[in-house]
Design goal:
metal-binding, Put_metal_dep_hydrolase_YfiT, cytoplasm, globular, mainly alpha, 178 residues, hydrolase, Four Helix Bundle (Hemerythrin (Met), subunit A), zinc
C-alpha cells in the first residue's frame, strides 16, 4: 500500500460549487455518526494499539482522536461565528503542533471521544436547523486565503470525519484487530 493511500484512504476532499439538500442531509448524518463509530471501533483498544501510528510518519491513533476533537470543536465554533457575524475572519491553529502537545500524546482517548460525542450533539442540532440562507453564510480562513460557505464546511467535515475514521479502521484491518 502506498503512502498517499495510507494518508488519504478515501481520497482528498473535493469541494463543489453547491450542495443539494440531500447531500447536506447526508453530510450532517456522517458528522452525527462519527462519535459512535469511533467509540465502537476503539472501545477495547489498549495503549499499545492507541499508540500505534496509523501510517509511517503519521500520528498515533491517540493523537488522531485528540486531533479530531480539537478540529471539530474549532469547526463548531467557526460555524457559530459565521451564523452570528458577517463573514468573520476565523482564527487558524497549528494542527500539527497541537497534536504534539503532551495531552495529545498521553491523555486517555475517552476524554476526546466524550468531547466529540457532546460537541457533535450540539453541532448536529445546529446544522439541522439551518435554512438555505444560513447555509450560504461564510467565514474567511486567513491561512488558505479562502472564503468558506457553511454548506461546504459541512461537506468538508463529513469528509474529515470519514477520512480520520478510516485511518483507524484500516489500521485495525491491517493488523487483524477486529
Amino acid at each position: 500500500m502506498d503512502l498517499h493511500e495510507l494518508k488519504y484512504p478515501i481520497g482528498e476532499f473535493q469541494s463543489q460549487e453547491s450542495y443539494t439538500p440531500s447531500e447536506i442531509k447526508s453530510n450532517i448524518q456522517i458528522i452525527s455518526a462519527l462519535p459512535s463509530k469511533f467509540i465502537n471501533l476503539l472501545g477495547n483498544w489498549d495503549d499499545h494499539r492507541l499508540d500505534t501510528p496509523y501510517r509511517p510518519g503519521g500520528w498515533t491513533v491517540r493523537q488522531l482522536i485528540h486531533h479530531v476533537a480539537d478540529s471539530h470543536i474549532n469547526a463548531y465554533t467557526r460555524c457559530r461565528l459565521a451564523l452570528t457575524e458577517d463573514n468573520p475572519t476565523i482564527r487558524p491553529y497549528e494542527e500539527q503542533l497541537w497534536a504534539e502537545l503532551p495531552d495529545a500524546k498521553t491523555a486517555q482517548v475517552e476524554l476526546s471521544l466524550q468531547l466529540l460525542r457532546y460537541v457533535h450533539l450540539r453541532w448536529v442540532l445546529l446544522l439541522n436547523s439551518l435554512d438555505e440562507n444560513d447555509l450560504a453564510r461564510t467565514y474567511f480562513h486567513p491561512g488558505s486565503q479562502k472564503l468558506y460557505r457553511l454548506d461546504e464546511v459541512i461537506a468538508n467535515y463529513a469528509w474529515h470525519s470519514e477520512h480520520h475514521y478510516q485511518h483507524a479502521f484500516r489500521l485495525a484491518q491491517r493488523n487483524n484487530w477486529q
